[in-house]
Amino acid sequence: MSTKSRSAGEPAEGPEPLRRSKEAVKAASLAAAYELLTEFGLSGVSVDEVARRSGVAKTTIYRHWPSRTALLFDAVMQFAPRLQTPNTGSLRGDLTSLALGLAQRLQTGRWSSAMPSIVDAAERDTEVAEFQSRTHAGMMSGFGAIAARAQARGELDQKLDVSELTAAIAGPLFYRRWFSRQELDEAFVRGVVERALVWDCSSHG
Amino acid sequence: MSTKSRSAGEPAEGPEPLRRSKEAVKAASLAAAYELLTEFGLSGVSVDEVARRSGVAKTTIYRHWPSRTALLFDAVMQFAPRLQTPNTGSLRGDLTSLALGLAQRLQTGRWSSAMPSIVDAAERDTEVAEFQSRTHAGMMSGFGAIAARAQARGELDQKLDVSELTAAIAGPLFYRRWFSRQELDEAFVRGVVERALVWDCSSHG
DNA sequence: TATCTAAGCTACGGCACCGTATCGTAGCTA
DNA sequence: TAGCTACGATACGGTGCCGTAGCTTAGATA
């Protein structure tokens, strides 16, 4: 009821400054919003609740963001994950590594729990839809990088449509995670990658 | 302000019976709920709005369903679509037809607009999750039927995992519809099916 | 020490929603 | 005609939310 937080993040116990700096306040608000987002989805992020969790006064939050939506955008932006692009030297190795990383994120990442609510919002709000498209493209850019390298090595057909390759691999993973709700084990992921490789390498030649 | 509706569906203008039968009232409520669901997603279905749209008094709605959630379940159940299983005589023909039908539904079906909100709800409510799994399995049962026939004809490896085949085809379609937000043209759909066939037929032999 | 910036608190008006209570009444059936 | 069933209208209590107002005060800076 009295001891307030210390810096970005949870309400800690240090009796430090009862008043936080502008930056600390913004960070704490965003952290709480992020937390709520992953826990309850977009609709679970209310300004009142962010204020409660962060220990930042609601009025203060409104001094930093003009509306709930603005805060939400900032929070989503902040943690939009980007898959890091592996470089194993072979197309098969790269794709397998990337796919396994993606599967990992899908299963354990807190982001994957917030995703459906964003997709849902995008369904009826064009601004969100554009934002989501952009963010998503960024997240999946690893596929493009990998394909480009493979093409440079002559390992992959020059005129292959990267977006098809991406859909062929990410699609089945996403499908299992959110639609059929089956397990995403390593065998499945490797199978998906092999399927994509069979097509791209042998069937075109 | 005064003239009420006629039967199941929209508030029509005929000054017909101001009081509808028990059945008509239930049908009208469900129809309105369905409409709101496809238009605004799960969270857009409020009892007040259902009452407004259907012309059924809120009190009456509560006489038929104990809670908003119960009404929602009924409404979702009612229209959960089931892809009809084609029978063209060949595996390629069947899968292509099924996939094209699915793509069609994804792009034009009102159901596809409600889906993300259900997935989102399933993310944090196990009851919804189970419901969704079941419904989804039913919707995708066509793949199993097709595969079984192909296996009986010896066109398909007996030990193929149908769920992998389903994921390989439905996955990329869903992915494009909701995640990458790209167009789902016929060429893409056919490509996805070919990819699946290449694997299942040649690579195993 | 004086000043100024920005955080904190309490409270509010407005709205949408859930679920219930109360009363009135249409229309069927005995 | 009497009575029963189920719908309709209004209203309410309670909650959660958005965004704002008014005021206080900590802490950095000049």
Can you walk through the features of this model?
2 copies of one chain form a homodimer. Chain A is mainly alpha-helical and 205 residues long. Chain A has 2 domains: 22-78, Homeodomain-like (Arc Repressor Mutant, subunit A, Orthogonal Bundle), CATH 1.10.10; 81-203, Tetracycline Repressor, domain 2 (Orthogonal Bundle), CATH 1.10.357. Chain A contains 10 helices and no strands. The termini of chain A are far apart. Chain A binds chain B through residues 40-41, 43, 113, 116-117, 119-120, 122-124, 129, 132-133, 136-137, 140, 163-164, 166-168, 170-176, 178-182, 188, 191-192, 194-196, 198-199, 202-203, and chain B through 40-41, 43, 113, 116-117, 119-120, 122-124, 129, 132-133, 136-137, 140, 163-164, 166-168, 170-176, 178-182, 188, 191-192, 194-196, 198-199, 202-203.
What order do the helices and strands come in, and which of them pair?
2 copies of one chain form a homodimer.
Chain A: H1 22-40, H2 47-54, H3 58-64, H4 68-79, H5 91-108, H6 111-124, H7 126-139, H8 141-152, H9 162-179, H10 186-203
Helix pairs in contact in A: 1-2, 1-4, 1-6, 5-8, 5-9, 5-10, 6-7, 9-10
The structure holds a DNA duplex (30 and 30 nucleotides).
Percent range of helical residues of chain A: 55-70%
- Give the percentage of residues in beta strands of chain A: under 5%
End-to-end separation of chain A: 70 Å
Would you identify the CATH H-level superfamily of the largest domain in chain A? Tetracycline Repressor, domain 2
The third-level CATH topology of the largest domain in chain A is Tetracycline Repressor, domain 2
Most residues in contact: chain pair: A-B, 44 and 44 residues
Mean pLDDT across residues of chain A: 88
Low-confidence stretches of chain A: 1-17
Number of strands of chain A: 0
Number of domains of chain A: 2
The CATH class assignment of the largest domain in chain A is Mainly Alpha
